[in-house]
Design goal:
The complex is a heterodimer of chains A (about 240) and B (about 220). Chain A has a domain of about 140 residues: Immunoglobulin-like (Sandwich). Chain A contains one helix and 13 strands; from the N terminus they run αβββββββββββββ. The two termini of chain A are about 45 Å apart. By secondary structure, chain B is mainly beta. The N and C termini of chain B lie far apart (about 75 Å). Classes of the chains: A mainly beta (about 240), B mainly beta (about 220). At the A-B interface, strand 1, strand 4 and strand 13 of A face strand 1, strand 3, strand 4, strand 9 and strand 13 of B.
């Protein structure tokens, strides 16, 4: 009987603890705002193999018997006095070699529209850059130092801020190759940069950046290291910041 | 007499000159080949289909279960109208599913380039304020159906063109036209003669965006390689 009573008491305490803690957690973990900063890594500089000329014959005297005469014909830009009106579709003069390239082009437009309404929570959490771009060669790295962009919490009540990136850049170019050095703008940078948590790879979780009770601005410096196997092109991911109160 | 001599000399000079002009080249003439090359302009067929699949429309960027897409009145149906995000809130990000399908058919076996740019800045037609399009409107690859993108799937920003723009008001009947003197970086490159591209769009509404109706023309240009 005593054991049964103790069991009832234990269950009651458990229920009470659940009922008591749930609203508190809900209060603490209420998402107020979520913003994203697009991080674009423009990979440029894959070495191009030197092209072997096809049919190249150096200029030489045409007096050699039995040798073909190679004639180089250049199209020269006309002087003003020689200009004549003409029409061509998308005529392009490229460089100083006076090459004339006529290209066919077709164009189609698309209208994008939206009706925007004010959002009272729009400025609770803001970044000064919605997009940041870094350029690096395969196997190289690039940095955006010196408080390149900021994330500002505009709350004077209790808040916490989480961060992470949404996904890898591409297979073979993991998101952890992007490292951040995030610090309050009133402080000095951290001794080292750390990889972002990757939401898609790390159990759909973010990491806690900080908490406070006052308006706070964070500086974010970025460093990316591009694997040597990555080819030229733009790669992107989102750095996401989520504000709770 | 002098006049007679001058006349004779003139006749002699004229005869010599005519002989030089009219006589065949004879033994001094050389023959050779001239290699003439020319390029025939490729024929390009390019169709742009907005709202190309059912289920098109805008969803708020969120993780987890995705909302049902909605759209504004400009998106009049599958394959028609505009990409209309409908009602949005400043500071939020939205994904527009099945925004644009580009189908290119050419006779150019060298392939082609696709350029996509905004004709102007993102403009609030209600008060005239403008915002950089590269901070607001993005594109990302999609699919013919079964689109799994979210508002947090990374894309790439559109840029505002450096070309000359004509037209392009907020009316679908007054589209923008871009005249290029130099092409920008392409949004797509095809190595073959034909290809189809599917795109979703994202709209990151600026934090400080004023209330009103916004618009921007995205102009796609296809050029033979």
């Amino acid at each position: 009987m005593t054991r049964l009573r103790l069991l009832f008491v234990a269950v009651a305490l458990l229920v009470l603890s659940v009922l008591w803690t749930q609203p508190v957690q809900a209060t603490i973990a209420s998402q107020q705002s979520q913003i994203s900063v697009l991080v674009v890594v423009d990979v440029v500089g894959t070495p191009v193999p030197t092209a072997t000329p096809v049919g190249y014959l150096p200029f030489a005297s045409p007096a050699q018997a039995g040798q073909p005469v190679i004639s180089s014909v250049a199209v020269r830009r006309l002087t003003t006095s020689q200009e004549r009106p003409f029409q061509a579709e998308s005529l392009e003069f490229s460089g100083d070699d006076s090459t004339i390239v006529a290209q066919a082009q077709v164009q189609n437009p698309l209208l994008v529209q939206a009706e925007v309404s004010p959002n009272p929570k729009a400025t609770l959490l803001v970044s000064d850059y919605p997009t940041v771009t870094m350029t690096a060669p395969p196997g190289g790295s690039a940095s955006l130092p010196a408080c390149y962009f900021t994330v500002k919490v505009n709350m004077s009540t209790t808040w916490s801020l989480e961060q992470g990136i949404t996904n890898d850049f591409v297979t073979g170019f993991p998101g952890t190759d992007l490292r951040n050095n995030t610090y309050k703008n009133s402080a000095t940078p951290q001794p080292t940069s750390t990889p972002y948590v990757v939401y898609a790879d790390d159990g759909s979780e973010w990491s806690v950046l900080g908490s406070g009770t006052a308006i706070t601005t964070y500086c974010v410096d970025l460093t990316v290291t591009v694997p040597s196997s990555v080819t030229d092109g733009p790669y992107s991911t989102y750095a996401v910041y989520t504000l709770f109160n | 007499m002098k006049r007679y001599l001058l006349g004779v000399l003139s006749a002699i000079f004229a005869a010599v000159a005519m002989t030089a002009v009219l006589s065949p080249a004879g033994a001094a003439t050389a023959s050779g080949n001239v290699n003439v090359e020319w390029h025939v302009l490729p024929v390009i067929h390019f169709s742009l289909t907005p709202n190309y699949a059912s289920g098109y429309g805008s969803v708020l960027a969120t993780f987890g279960t995705q909302p049902t897409p909605t759209h504004g009145p400009g998106a009049t149906g599958v394959g028609t109208g505009t990409v209309d995000f409908g009602t949005t809130l400043s500071g939020d990000t939205y994904l527009y599913k099945y925004a644009a399908e580009l189908t290119v058919t050419t006779n150019d076996t060298n392939g082609f380039y696709v350029y996509g740019e905004a004709a102007a800045a993102l403009t609030n037609n209600s008060d005239g304020t403008q915002y950089p399009v590269s901070n607001a409107v993005y594109y990302l690859t999609s699919s013919a159906s079964g689109d799994s993108n979210t508002g947090f799937t990374p894309g790439l920003p559109f840029s505002q063109t450096g070309g000359a723009v004509s037209g392009g008001t907020d009316s679908i009947s007054n589209p923008a036209v871009i005249t290029y003197t130099a092409y920008p970086a392409p949004v797509a490159v095809s190595a073959g003669a034909n290809d189809t591209y599917y795109y979703d769009y994202q709209f990151k509404v600026p934090d400080t965006a004023t209330a009103g109706d916004y618009y921007v023309w995205i102009v796609y240009t296809v050029v033979g390689a």
